[in-house]
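Late entry, evening session. Most of the bench is empty. Finally got around to the prediction I had been postponing all week. Sequence below, unchanged from the version circulated by S.P.
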Amino acid sequence: MLNNEKGITMVALIIAIILMLIITSTLIFSSRNGLDISKLNKMYEDIQNLDGKISVYYSKHKTLPIKEKKYENVNNIKNINVNDNDNYYVIDIENIDNLTLNYGLDYKNYETNNNIEDVYVINEKSHTIYYIKGIEIDGSRYYTTNANYTEVIVPKWSNVYNNTEEFIDLNGDKATIPAGFQISLQQGENTILDGLVIRNATDLNEFVWIPCNIVKYDRYAFDANGWVHSQTKQGLDEETNSYKILDSADVTKYYIETIDEQEQASIKKYGGFYIGRYETGIEEGELYSSSNDEMYENWTGYNSGNVVIKKDSNVWNYITMKKAKEIAQNLYKKDEDNVTSKLCSSYAWDTTLKFIETSNTNYATNSTNSVYERENIQKTGTQKSVNNIYDIAGNVEEWTLEEYSDATRVVSRGGNYENNASESPAAYRNINGVLYASDKIGFRIMLYL
């Protein structure tokens, strides 16, 4: 009996060892495969950056940034573009401004060594770009981005920034990326003028860069012919040292806001700020009340939930301005998260509208294609964006830090789903009491470095 037990134990041990060997070999293979895919993604990023930069260069100079001598060693490339001619040239990286590459850095040695492979070449006719050395995955080698693998593994986001760094887009425009964030690699989301999208790598909340070298960081009065709430800017308010903005519907009262000196200093230093891509949403929140019957300023109708700034989220409404201010301030702290979060100021709101108007004329007072004249509130991001910013007009009004001159009421912006776009566009200013909360008012968070 004892010998039988030992025999069973030995068999079980042998089986366990075999299984461990299989699992270990699988893990090694998976790790190696993942590393190769990472290399492939880096090559794709390089080619994407080169393609954009070369397009700009070609449109300006009517020639390609290339070495004079043709590159002949292209016989090993298997996935040649059918539209290529026979002329391939090494891309002269030194002729391209503001470009950082992962590979292809041996271009300087091409004049003395015609067989180098760590270079990017471009075809004279099709302008297809190839990495001569290529990247190998599971026995297949890839040289450009027109192969089938790009449909599966093309990254949507950049690597996480380990340090706060300056980013320069394909047009030469600049933004500052905070450590711990990623840049969108999607077309239309990775240039400043289109609205550069970033996200926090931990909670995946998304924001859009507002460049204050393109539009001046300030509070603005917006007007339009026939608009009942057309605004005018008048003299300084002595207490807040801010311009008085009057609404034509009631010129006896005005809007003001004391400037946040830290916010202002950051924008001066870094050249801009970030605004929430979406209205602030709530995740796993439970609505227990739809009215502030207890009458206190820091109130919300939700007894749980987390802040989300993502598409298809439930909007965080039923909240007073002061509670929205508290939640916004607690999202990110400079010492821990490399950015400071806060409720959107009127400076940030108005500057954002001016930025949007650089590509969407008169949007502030003519906010078409927004969530208006609906029966119900919509989830975040259901309507078309402007400069990658969603619902800054319509859906819900949004609390800001702006103040009303009678000191008893607070200001929301942008109109809500029951309004119409002509009366309550993105520039619209509305006032309510400090204890007011409803399904029609939410809030938006801004960031500064």
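Two things to note before I forget:
Residues 1-7, 21-33, 147-153 have pLDDT under 50 and may be disordered.
The radius of gyration is 28 Å.
Will write this up properly tomorrow.
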